[in-house]
Amino acid sequence: MPTAQTRKSAITFFKNYTDMKEIVSSEFEQEVLKGGKVVLDFYSSECPPCEALAPKFESLAKLYGNDIKFLKIFRQQNRELADQLGVKSSPTLLFFDDGKEVGQVLTGGVKRKDIIANLDQLISEEEIAIIHDKIKPSVSEYDVMILGAGPGGLTAGLYLCQAKINTVLIDIALPGGHVATTHEVSNYPGFIEPQAGYMLSHNMSEQTKLCGTAYKVAVDVSKVDLDKREVILDEYETVKAKKIIIATGTSPNLMGIPGERELKGKGISYCATCDAKYYGDKEVVVIGGGNSAVEESDFISKFASKITLVHQFDTLTANKTAQEKLLANPKITTMLEHEPRSFKRDGDKIITEVEDLKTKEIKTLVSDGVFIFIGMKPNVQLFKDKLTFDQWGYIKTDEDMRTSMPDIFAVGDVISKKYRQITTAVSDGTIAAIAIAKELN
Ligand SMILES: Cc1cc2nc3c(=O)[nH]c(=O)nc-3n(C[C@H](O)[C@H](O)[C@H](O)COP(=O)(O)OP(=O)(O)OC[C@H]3O[C@@H](n4cnc5c(N)ncnc54)[C@H](O)[C@@H]3O)c2cc1C
Protein backbone atom coordinates (compact mmCIF):
# COMPACT_ATOMS: atom_id res chain seq x y z
CA MET A 1 0.00 0.00 0.00
CA PRO A 2 1.29 3.50 -0.71
CA THR A 3 2.35 5.49 2.33
CA ALA A 4 1.39 9.11 2.96
CA GLN A 5 5.00 10.00 2.14
CA THR A 6 4.99 8.31 -1.28
CA ARG A 7 1.56 9.82 -2.04
CA LYS A 8 2.96 13.25 -1.25
CA SER A 9 6.07 12.73 -3.37
CA ALA A 10 3.99 11.55 -6.32
CA ILE A 11 1.79 14.60 -6.02
CA THR A 12 4.69 17.03 -5.83
CA PHE A 13 6.75 15.22 -8.49
CA PHE A 14 6.45 16.28 -12.19
CA LYS A 15 4.11 19.15 -11.69
CA ASN A 16 4.58 20.67 -15.11
CA TYR A 17 2.49 18.41 -17.26
CA THR A 18 -0.84 16.91 -16.36
CA ASP A 19 -2.30 16.68 -19.82
CA MET A 20 -1.42 15.62 -23.33
CA LYS A 21 0.53 17.82 -25.67
CA GLU A 22 0.92 17.87 -29.45
CA ILE A 23 4.48 18.29 -30.75
CA VAL A 24 6.23 18.60 -34.13
CA SER A 25 9.60 17.14 -35.23
CA SER A 26 11.60 20.24 -34.26
CA GLU A 27 10.46 19.83 -30.64
CA PHE A 28 11.42 16.14 -30.47
CA GLU A 29 14.84 16.69 -28.91
CA GLN A 30 13.59 19.06 -26.22
CA GLU A 31 10.30 17.36 -25.42
CA VAL A 32 11.29 13.72 -25.83
CA LEU A 33 15.05 13.21 -25.70
CA LYS A 34 15.46 15.73 -22.87
CA GLY A 35 11.93 15.19 -21.58
CA GLY A 36 12.33 12.56 -18.86
CA LYS A 37 9.63 9.91 -18.93
CA VAL A 38 7.63 10.15 -22.14
CA VAL A 39 5.06 8.26 -24.16
CA LEU A 40 4.83 9.45 -27.76
CA ASP A 41 1.85 8.63 -30.01
CA PHE A 42 2.43 8.81 -33.77
CA TYR A 43 -1.11 9.16 -35.17
CA SER A 44 -2.64 9.81 -38.58
CA SER A 45 -5.89 11.10 -39.94
CA GLU A 46 -8.39 8.65 -41.49
CA CYS A 47 -6.94 5.95 -39.25
CA PRO A 48 -9.57 3.97 -37.32
CA PRO A 49 -7.03 2.35 -34.96
CA CYS A 50 -5.73 5.84 -34.09
CA GLU A 51 -9.27 6.93 -33.24
CA ALA A 52 -9.69 3.79 -31.15
CA LEU A 53 -6.52 4.59 -29.24
CA ALA A 54 -7.32 8.27 -28.63
CA PRO A 55 -9.80 7.84 -25.71
CA LYS A 56 -7.51 5.32 -23.97
CA PHE A 57 -4.50 7.59 -24.36
CA GLU A 58 -6.52 10.51 -23.04
CA SER A 59 -7.87 8.64 -20.01
CA LEU A 60 -4.41 7.26 -19.17
CA ALA A 61 -2.94 10.75 -19.51
CA LYS A 62 -5.32 11.83 -16.74
CA LEU A 63 -4.14 8.96 -14.52
CA TYR A 64 -0.40 9.00 -15.28
CA GLY A 65 -0.01 12.61 -16.44
CA ASN A 66 1.69 13.75 -13.22
CA ASP A 67 4.48 11.23 -13.67
CA ILE A 68 4.81 10.72 -17.41
CA LYS A 69 4.62 13.12 -20.33
CA PHE A 70 1.91 12.21 -22.85
CA LEU A 71 2.82 13.52 -26.32
CA LYS A 72 1.14 13.18 -29.69
CA ILE A 73 2.72 13.79 -33.09
CA PHE A 74 0.93 13.86 -36.45
CA ARG A 75 2.78 11.25 -38.51
CA GLN A 76 1.81 12.53 -41.97
CA GLN A 77 3.43 15.91 -41.28
CA ASN A 78 6.45 14.54 -39.43
CA ARG A 79 7.30 11.64 -41.68
CA GLU A 80 11.07 12.09 -41.68
CA LEU A 81 11.19 11.72 -37.89
CA ALA A 82 8.80 8.76 -38.05
CA ASP A 83 11.08 7.07 -40.59
CA GLN A 84 14.15 7.74 -38.44
CA LEU A 85 12.42 6.07 -35.50
CA GLY A 86 11.28 3.10 -37.60
CA VAL A 87 7.62 4.04 -37.30
CA LYS A 88 5.86 2.55 -40.31
CA SER A 89 2.19 2.56 -39.36
CA SER A 90 -0.29 4.47 -37.29
CA PRO A 91 -0.86 4.55 -34.45
CA THR A 92 2.54 3.72 -33.00
CA LEU A 93 3.33 4.35 -29.35
CA LEU A 94 6.97 4.76 -28.31
CA PHE A 95 8.17 5.01 -24.71
CA PHE A 96 11.24 6.99 -23.63
CA ASP A 97 13.12 7.27 -20.36
CA ASP A 98 15.79 10.00 -20.15
CA GLY A 99 16.18 10.12 -23.93
CA LYS A 100 16.42 6.34 -24.41
CA GLU A 101 13.68 4.39 -26.14
CA VAL A 102 12.43 1.70 -23.75
CA GLY A 103 9.63 -0.87 -23.49
CA GLN A 104 7.60 -2.23 -26.40
CA VAL A 105 6.66 -0.51 -29.63
CA LEU A 106 2.85 -0.64 -29.58
CA THR A 107 1.05 -0.39 -32.87
CA GLY A 108 -2.26 -1.24 -34.57
CA GLY A 109 -5.18 -1.97 -32.22
CA VAL A 110 -3.31 -0.91 -29.10
CA LYS A 111 -4.71 -2.40 -25.88
CA ARG A 112 -5.11 -0.31 -22.74
CA LYS A 113 -3.45 -3.00 -20.62
CA ASP A 114 -0.38 -3.01 -22.90
CA ILE A 115 -0.04 0.75 -22.55
CA ILE A 116 -0.39 0.43 -18.78
CA ALA A 117 2.28 -2.30 -18.67
CA ASN A 118 4.74 -0.04 -20.51
CA LEU A 119 3.84 3.05 -18.48
CA ASP A 120 4.30 1.11 -15.25
CA GLN A 121 7.84 0.21 -16.30
CA LEU A 122 8.68 3.92 -16.32
CA ILE A 123 7.69 4.62 -12.73
CA SER A 124 8.33 3.29 -9.23
CA GLU A 125 6.31 0.64 -7.38
CA GLU A 126 4.93 3.35 -5.09
CA GLU A 127 3.78 5.50 -7.99
CA ILE A 128 2.19 2.47 -9.66
CA ALA A 129 0.29 1.66 -6.46
CA ILE A 130 -1.03 5.21 -6.16
CA ILE A 131 -2.20 5.31 -9.76
CA HIS A 132 -3.79 1.84 -9.77
CA ASP A 133 -5.54 2.77 -6.54
CA LYS A 134 -7.36 5.53 -8.41
CA ILE A 135 -8.97 3.04 -10.83
CA LYS A 136 -12.33 2.24 -9.19
CA PRO A 137 -14.47 -0.78 -10.26
CA SER A 138 -17.94 -0.01 -11.65
CA VAL A 139 -21.04 -2.03 -12.64
CA SER A 140 -23.71 -1.22 -15.23
CA GLU A 141 -26.76 -3.22 -16.36
CA TYR A 142 -28.62 -3.43 -19.66
CA ASP A 143 -31.31 -5.58 -21.27
CA VAL A 144 -29.05 -6.51 -24.17
CA MET A 145 -25.30 -6.35 -24.61
CA ILE A 146 -23.88 -6.55 -28.13
CA LEU A 147 -20.23 -7.53 -28.44
CA GLY A 148 -18.90 -6.10 -31.68
CA ALA A 149 -20.01 -2.96 -33.52
CA GLY A 150 -19.57 -4.02 -37.13
CA PRO A 151 -22.56 -4.03 -39.49
CA GLY A 152 -24.09 -7.06 -37.70
CA GLY A 153 -23.87 -5.55 -34.21
CA LEU A 154 -24.80 -2.04 -35.34
CA THR A 155 -27.94 -3.28 -37.09
CA ALA A 156 -28.97 -5.32 -34.05
CA GLY A 157 -28.38 -2.20 -31.93
CA LEU A 158 -30.57 -0.11 -34.21
CA TYR A 159 -33.50 -2.54 -34.21
CA LEU A 160 -33.30 -3.08 -30.43
CA CYS A 161 -33.15 0.63 -29.80
CA GLN A 162 -36.16 1.24 -32.03
CA ALA A 163 -37.96 -1.48 -30.01
CA LYS A 164 -37.16 0.61 -26.88
CA ILE A 165 -34.85 -2.04 -25.43
CA ASN A 166 -32.02 -0.81 -23.25
CA THR A 167 -28.96 -1.88 -25.23
CA VAL A 168 -25.21 -1.38 -25.04
CA LEU A 169 -22.76 -1.89 -27.90
CA ILE A 170 -19.25 -2.87 -26.88
CA ASP A 171 -16.27 -2.92 -29.21
CA ILE A 172 -12.56 -3.32 -28.73
CA ALA A 173 -12.07 -0.80 -31.54
CA LEU A 174 -14.18 1.98 -33.01
CA PRO A 175 -17.60 1.10 -34.47
CA GLY A 176 -17.68 -0.06 -38.08
CA GLY A 177 -15.90 -3.42 -38.17
CA HIS A 178 -14.30 -4.31 -41.50
CA VAL A 179 -16.44 -1.81 -43.36
CA ALA A 180 -14.63 1.05 -41.64
CA THR A 181 -11.36 -0.06 -43.23
CA THR A 182 -12.70 -1.04 -46.66
CA HIS A 183 -11.84 1.71 -49.11
CA GLU A 184 -14.91 1.31 -51.30
CA VAL A 185 -18.17 -0.62 -51.04
CA SER A 186 -20.10 -0.92 -54.28
CA ASN A 187 -22.60 -3.64 -53.41
CA TYR A 188 -24.47 -2.27 -50.42
CA PRO A 189 -28.03 -1.62 -51.65
CA GLY A 190 -29.41 1.90 -51.67
CA PHE A 191 -26.36 3.71 -53.06
CA ILE A 192 -25.92 4.32 -56.79
CA GLU A 193 -22.22 5.25 -56.52
CA PRO A 194 -19.63 3.17 -54.60
CA GLN A 195 -19.40 4.35 -51.00
CA ALA A 196 -16.22 4.94 -48.98
CA GLY A 197 -16.32 2.17 -46.36
CA TYR A 198 -15.59 4.50 -43.46
CA MET A 199 -18.54 6.73 -44.46
CA LEU A 200 -20.92 3.80 -44.78
CA SER A 201 -19.89 2.47 -41.37
CA HIS A 202 -19.92 5.98 -39.90
CA ASN A 203 -23.51 6.45 -41.09
CA MET A 204 -24.56 3.06 -39.74
CA SER A 205 -22.97 3.87 -36.41
CA GLU A 206 -24.44 7.38 -36.14
CA GLN A 207 -27.93 6.04 -36.96
CA THR A 208 -27.70 3.52 -34.12
CA LYS A 209 -26.09 5.98 -31.70
CA LEU A 210 -28.61 8.75 -32.41
CA CYS A 211 -31.42 6.30 -31.73
CA GLY A 212 -30.07 6.00 -28.17
CA THR A 213 -28.05 2.79 -27.97
CA ALA A 214 -25.23 3.14 -25.41
CA TYR A 215 -21.66 2.77 -26.72
CA LYS A 216 -18.59 1.47 -24.96
CA VAL A 217 -15.96 1.38 -27.67
CA ALA A 218 -12.18 1.24 -27.84
CA VAL A 219 -12.18 -0.86 -24.68
CA ASP A 220 -10.36 -4.02 -23.70
CA VAL A 221 -12.83 -6.84 -23.20
CA SER A 222 -10.86 -8.50 -20.40
CA LYS A 223 -13.29 -11.31 -19.56
CA VAL A 224 -16.63 -12.68 -20.78
CA ASP A 225 -18.83 -14.87 -18.56
CA LEU A 226 -21.63 -16.18 -20.77
CA ASP A 227 -23.25 -18.10 -17.86
CA LYS A 228 -23.61 -14.93 -15.79
CA ARG A 229 -24.07 -12.81 -18.94
CA GLU A 230 -21.49 -10.29 -17.87
CA VAL A 231 -18.25 -8.92 -19.25
CA ILE A 232 -15.38 -7.04 -17.68
CA LEU A 233 -14.00 -4.08 -19.59
CA ASP A 234 -10.52 -2.68 -19.12
CA GLU A 235 -10.19 -4.89 -16.04
CA TYR A 236 -12.38 -2.64 -13.86
CA GLU A 237 -15.80 -2.09 -15.44
CA THR A 238 -18.44 -4.86 -15.21
CA VAL A 239 -21.32 -4.80 -17.71
CA LYS A 240 -24.30 -7.13 -17.18
CA ALA A 241 -27.23 -7.93 -19.46
CA LYS A 242 -30.23 -10.24 -19.79
CA LYS A 243 -29.15 -11.27 -23.27
CA ILE A 244 -25.91 -11.11 -25.25
CA ILE A 245 -25.42 -10.87 -29.00
CA ILE A 246 -21.97 -11.94 -30.18
CA ALA A 247 -21.07 -9.95 -33.32
CA THR A 248 -17.31 -10.05 -33.08
CA GLY A 249 -16.65 -10.84 -36.76
CA THR A 250 -13.30 -12.06 -38.02
CA SER A 251 -9.61 -11.04 -37.99
CA PRO A 252 -6.94 -11.39 -40.67
CA ASN A 253 -4.93 -14.59 -40.70
CA LEU A 254 -1.22 -14.22 -40.08
CA MET A 255 1.28 -16.05 -42.30
CA GLY A 256 3.16 -17.37 -39.27
CA ILE A 257 6.57 -17.23 -40.95
CA PRO A 258 9.86 -15.81 -39.65
CA GLY A 259 10.03 -12.02 -39.48
CA GLU A 260 6.27 -11.40 -39.66
CA ARG A 261 5.70 -10.69 -35.98
CA GLU A 262 8.81 -8.54 -35.68
CA LEU A 263 7.94 -6.42 -38.74
CA LYS A 264 4.18 -6.15 -38.06
CA GLY A 265 3.47 -2.43 -38.06
CA LYS A 266 7.08 -1.77 -39.12
CA GLY A 267 6.71 -2.48 -42.80
CA ILE A 268 4.17 -5.31 -42.73
CA SER A 269 0.52 -4.23 -42.70
CA TYR A 270 -2.91 -5.90 -42.84
CA CYS A 271 -4.91 -2.72 -43.58
CA ALA A 272 -4.55 -0.89 -46.89
CA THR A 273 -6.92 1.90 -45.87
CA CYS A 274 -4.74 2.61 -42.83
CA ASP A 275 -1.29 2.35 -44.40
CA ALA A 276 -1.32 2.54 -48.24
CA LYS A 277 -0.91 6.31 -48.10
CA TYR A 278 2.60 5.89 -46.70
CA TYR A 279 3.79 4.15 -49.85
CA GLY A 280 3.56 7.05 -52.31
CA ASP A 281 5.89 6.24 -55.26
CA LYS A 282 7.22 3.22 -53.40
CA GLU A 283 7.28 -0.48 -54.18
CA VAL A 284 5.02 -2.87 -52.35
CA VAL A 285 4.51 -6.63 -52.13
CA VAL A 286 0.96 -7.90 -51.57
CA ILE A 287 0.39 -11.47 -50.39
CA GLY A 288 -2.88 -13.20 -51.32
CA GLY A 289 -5.11 -13.81 -54.31
CA GLY A 290 -8.71 -13.52 -53.09
CA ASN A 291 -11.02 -10.52 -53.33
CA SER A 292 -9.41 -8.63 -50.46
CA ALA A 293 -5.86 -8.98 -51.88
CA VAL A 294 -6.90 -8.07 -55.41
CA GLU A 295 -9.22 -5.17 -54.53
CA GLU A 296 -6.83 -3.75 -51.96
CA SER A 297 -3.92 -3.98 -54.47
CA ASP A 298 -5.93 -1.80 -56.79
CA PHE A 299 -6.38 0.69 -53.94
CA ILE A 300 -2.69 0.58 -52.94
CA SER A 301 -1.79 1.31 -56.60
CA LYS A 302 -3.30 4.78 -56.17
CA PHE A 303 -0.18 5.49 -54.08
CA ALA A 304 2.56 2.93 -54.80
CA SER A 305 4.59 2.94 -58.02
CA LYS A 306 4.83 -0.84 -58.30
CA ILE A 307 3.00 -3.76 -56.71
CA THR A 308 3.97 -7.42 -56.86
CA LEU A 309 1.08 -9.68 -55.93
CA VAL A 310 2.29 -13.05 -54.63
CA HIS A 311 -0.23 -15.91 -54.68
CA GLN A 312 0.23 -19.60 -53.98
CA PHE A 313 -2.15 -20.99 -56.62
CA ASP A 314 -1.91 -20.85 -60.42
CA THR A 315 -5.00 -18.63 -60.68
CA LEU A 316 -6.37 -15.85 -58.51
CA THR A 317 -9.45 -16.69 -56.46
CA ALA A 318 -10.97 -13.18 -56.55
CA ASN A 319 -14.13 -12.65 -58.59
CA LYS A 320 -13.91 -11.93 -62.33
CA THR A 321 -14.64 -8.18 -62.04
CA ALA A 322 -11.84 -7.67 -59.52
CA GLN A 323 -9.43 -9.78 -61.60
CA GLU A 324 -10.18 -7.81 -64.79
CA LYS A 325 -9.48 -4.55 -62.96
CA LEU A 326 -6.19 -5.96 -61.67
CA LEU A 327 -5.05 -7.17 -65.09
CA ALA A 328 -5.78 -3.75 -66.56
CA ASN A 329 -3.63 -2.03 -63.90
CA PRO A 330 -0.11 -1.44 -65.30
CA LYS A 331 1.39 -0.98 -61.82
CA ILE A 332 0.51 -4.50 -60.66
CA THR A 333 2.31 -7.70 -61.64
CA THR A 334 1.33 -11.13 -60.34
CA MET A 335 3.67 -13.85 -59.14
CA LEU A 336 1.55 -17.00 -59.16
CA GLU A 337 2.51 -20.33 -57.59
CA HIS A 338 4.90 -18.63 -55.18
CA GLU A 339 4.72 -18.64 -51.39
CA PRO A 340 6.48 -16.33 -48.89
CA ARG A 341 8.95 -18.07 -46.59
CA SER A 342 10.38 -15.20 -44.52
CA PHE A 343 10.53 -11.42 -44.08
CA LYS A 344 13.64 -9.46 -43.16
CA ARG A 345 14.50 -5.81 -42.84
CA ASP A 346 17.50 -4.44 -44.74
CA GLY A 347 17.84 -0.72 -44.01
CA ASP A 348 14.68 0.92 -45.33
CA LYS A 349 13.70 -2.13 -47.35
CA ILE A 350 11.76 -5.28 -46.57
CA ILE A 351 13.19 -8.46 -48.05
CA THR A 352 10.55 -11.09 -48.78
CA GLU A 353 11.88 -14.54 -49.55
CA VAL A 354 9.42 -16.45 -51.72
CA GLU A 355 9.54 -20.03 -52.87
CA ASP A 356 8.66 -20.88 -56.45
CA LEU A 357 6.33 -23.80 -55.76
CA LYS A 358 7.05 -25.39 -59.14
CA THR A 359 10.88 -25.25 -59.16
CA LYS A 360 11.43 -24.94 -55.34
CA GLU A 361 13.79 -22.04 -56.09
CA ILE A 362 13.94 -19.34 -53.40
CA LYS A 363 13.65 -15.82 -54.83
CA THR A 364 14.13 -12.47 -53.13
CA LEU A 365 11.72 -9.56 -53.44
CA VAL A 366 12.95 -6.16 -52.28
CA SER A 367 10.19 -3.69 -51.42
CA ASP A 368 9.34 -0.75 -49.18
CA GLY A 369 6.45 -2.57 -47.55
CA VAL A 370 4.33 -5.70 -47.48
CA PHE A 371 0.55 -6.06 -47.21
CA ILE A 372 -0.89 -9.44 -46.21
CA PHE A 373 -4.46 -10.48 -47.14
CA ILE A 374 -4.71 -14.27 -46.72
CA GLY A 375 -8.17 -14.81 -45.32
CA MET A 376 -9.82 -14.46 -41.96
CA LYS A 377 -10.45 -16.34 -38.73
CA PRO A 378 -13.47 -15.96 -36.38
CA ASN A 379 -13.03 -13.85 -33.23
CA VAL A 380 -14.21 -16.45 -30.72
CA GLN A 381 -11.29 -16.74 -28.31
CA LEU A 382 -13.37 -15.35 -25.41
CA PHE A 383 -16.20 -17.86 -25.91
CA LYS A 384 -14.18 -21.02 -26.50
CA ASP A 385 -15.51 -24.17 -24.78
CA LYS A 386 -18.89 -22.56 -24.13
CA LEU A 387 -20.70 -22.64 -27.47
CA THR A 388 -21.09 -25.06 -30.34
CA PHE A 389 -18.77 -24.36 -33.29
CA ASP A 390 -18.44 -25.74 -36.83
CA GLN A 391 -15.26 -27.44 -37.99
CA TRP A 392 -13.68 -24.11 -38.94
CA GLY A 393 -14.38 -22.57 -35.54
CA TYR A 394 -17.42 -20.44 -36.48
CA ILE A 395 -20.36 -20.28 -34.02
CA LYS A 396 -23.36 -22.43 -34.90
CA THR A 397 -26.77 -20.72 -34.65
CA ASP A 398 -30.39 -21.52 -35.46
CA GLU A 399 -32.52 -19.45 -37.82
CA ASP A 400 -33.23 -16.87 -35.07
CA MET A 401 -29.46 -16.53 -34.49
CA ARG A 402 -29.63 -18.36 -31.14
CA THR A 403 -26.47 -20.18 -30.13
CA SER A 404 -26.36 -23.41 -28.13
CA MET A 405 -26.58 -21.37 -24.86
CA PRO A 406 -29.83 -19.79 -23.64
CA ASP A 407 -29.98 -15.99 -24.07
CA ILE A 408 -26.79 -15.92 -26.14
CA PHE A 409 -27.19 -14.99 -29.80
CA ALA A 410 -24.58 -14.58 -32.53
CA VAL A 411 -24.68 -12.68 -35.84
CA GLY A 412 -22.54 -11.73 -38.82
CA ASP A 413 -19.20 -13.12 -39.99
CA VAL A 414 -18.52 -14.92 -36.69
CA ILE A 415 -21.30 -17.45 -37.30
CA SER A 416 -21.22 -20.60 -39.40
CA LYS A 417 -22.60 -19.72 -42.83
CA LYS A 418 -21.74 -19.77 -46.51
CA TYR A 419 -21.54 -16.09 -47.45
CA ARG A 420 -19.95 -13.33 -45.42
CA GLN A 421 -20.97 -9.92 -46.67
CA ILE A 422 -22.22 -6.65 -45.18
CA THR A 423 -25.76 -7.46 -46.33
CA THR A 424 -25.71 -10.91 -44.70
CA ALA A 425 -24.33 -9.49 -41.42
CA VAL A 426 -27.02 -6.78 -41.45
CA SER A 427 -29.64 -9.45 -42.06
CA ASP A 428 -28.42 -11.57 -39.12
CA GLY A 429 -28.44 -8.52 -36.84
CA THR A 430 -32.01 -7.74 -37.84
CA ILE A 431 -33.20 -11.30 -37.15
CA ALA A 432 -31.52 -11.55 -33.73
CA ALA A 433 -32.87 -8.15 -32.63
CA ILE A 434 -36.44 -8.94 -33.66
CA ALA A 435 -36.28 -12.35 -31.96
CA ILE A 436 -34.92 -10.77 -28.75
CA ALA A 437 -37.41 -7.89 -28.83
CA LYS A 438 -40.27 -10.38 -29.03
CA GLU A 439 -38.95 -12.24 -25.97
CA LEU A 440 -38.23 -9.16 -23.87
CA ASN A 441 -41.41 -7.26 -24.73
C1 LIG B 1 -10.86 -5.95 -46.98
C2 LIG B 1 -12.32 -6.35 -46.95
C3 LIG B 1 -13.18 -5.83 -47.91
C4 LIG B 1 -14.54 -6.17 -47.89
N1 LIG B 1 -15.36 -5.65 -48.85
C5 LIG B 1 -16.69 -5.93 -48.80
C6 LIG B 1 -17.58 -5.36 -49.76
O1 LIG B 1 -17.17 -4.61 -50.67
N2 LIG B 1 -18.90 -5.66 -49.66
C7 LIG B 1 -19.40 -6.50 -48.70
O2 LIG B 1 -20.62 -6.71 -48.64
N3 LIG B 1 -18.57 -7.05 -47.79
C8 LIG B 1 -17.24 -6.80 -47.82
N4 LIG B 1 -16.41 -7.37 -46.89
C9 LIG B 1 -17.00 -8.26 -45.86
C10 LIG B 1 -17.71 -7.45 -44.79
O3 LIG B 1 -16.87 -6.39 -44.39
C11 LIG B 1 -18.08 -8.33 -43.62
O4 LIG B 1 -18.88 -9.39 -44.08
C12 LIG B 1 -18.83 -7.56 -42.54
O5 LIG B 1 -18.10 -6.45 -42.09
C13 LIG B 1 -19.16 -8.46 -41.36
O6 LIG B 1 -19.76 -7.71 -40.37
P1 LIG B 1 -19.73 -8.18 -38.84
O7 LIG B 1 -20.51 -7.16 -38.08
O8 LIG B 1 -20.14 -9.58 -38.73
O9 LIG B 1 -18.20 -8.19 -38.41
P2 LIG B 1 -17.02 -7.15 -38.54
O10 LIG B 1 -17.24 -6.19 -39.59
O11 LIG B 1 -15.81 -8.01 -38.58
O12 LIG B 1 -17.08 -6.41 -37.13
C14 LIG B 1 -16.78 -7.09 -35.93
C15 LIG B 1 -16.54 -6.07 -34.84
O13 LIG B 1 -16.34 -6.79 -33.62
C16 LIG B 1 -15.29 -6.19 -32.89
N5 LIG B 1 -14.74 -7.18 -31.99
C17 LIG B 1 -13.86 -8.17 -32.25
N6 LIG B 1 -13.61 -8.88 -31.12
C18 LIG B 1 -14.35 -8.31 -30.14
C19 LIG B 1 -14.52 -8.58 -28.75
N7 LIG B 1 -13.89 -9.59 -28.14
N8 LIG B 1 -15.35 -7.81 -28.05
C20 LIG B 1 -15.99 -6.77 -28.64
N9 LIG B 1 -15.86 -6.45 -29.96
C21 LIG B 1 -15.06 -7.23 -30.68
C22 LIG B 1 -14.33 -5.72 -33.97
O14 LIG B 1 -13.52 -4.69 -33.48
C23 LIG B 1 -15.29 -5.25 -35.05
O15 LIG B 1 -15.61 -3.89 -34.91
C24 LIG B 1 -15.05 -7.04 -46.88
C25 LIG B 1 -14.19 -7.54 -45.92
C26 LIG B 1 -12.83 -7.21 -45.94
C27 LIG B 1 -11.92 -7.75 -44.88
Main sheet properties? 7 strands, mixed
Number of helices: 13
Distance between the termini: 49 Å
| Global Rg | 23 Å
Describe it for me?
This protein is α/β, with parallel strands linked by helices and 441 residues long. It has three domains: 4-134, Glutaredoxin; 138-251 and 376-440, FAD/NAD(P)-binding domain (3-Layer(bba) Sandwich), CATH 3.50.50; 260-372, 3-Layer(bba) Sandwich (FAD/NAD(P)-binding domain), CATH 3.50.50.60. It is built from 13 helices and 22 strands. The radius of gyration is 23 Å and the shape is globular. It starts with a helix and ends with a helix. Mean pLDDT is 92; it is low at 1-17. It binds flavin-adenine dinucleotide. Flavin-adenine dinucleotide (FAD) binds next to helix 7, strand 7, helix 11 and helix 13.
Fold blueprint:
Elements: H1 4-12, E1 20-23, H2 28-33, E2 37-43, H3 48-64, E3 69-74, H4 79-84, E4 92-97, E5 100-107, H5 112-120, H6 125-133, E6 138-147, H7 151-162, E7 167-171, H8 197-211, E8 214-217, E9 221-225, E10 230-233, E11 237-246, E12 250-252, H9 260-263, E13 268-269, H10 272-275, E14 283-287, H11 291-300, E15 306-311, H12 320-327, E16 332-336, E17 338-346, E18 349-356, E19 362-367, E20 369-372, E21 376-378, E22 408-410, H13 422-440
Parallel strand pairs: 1-3, 2-3, 6-7, 6-11, 7-8, 11-22, 13-20, 14-15, 14-20, 15-16
Antiparallel strand pairs: 2-4, 4-5, 9-10, 10-11, 12-21, 17-18, 18-19
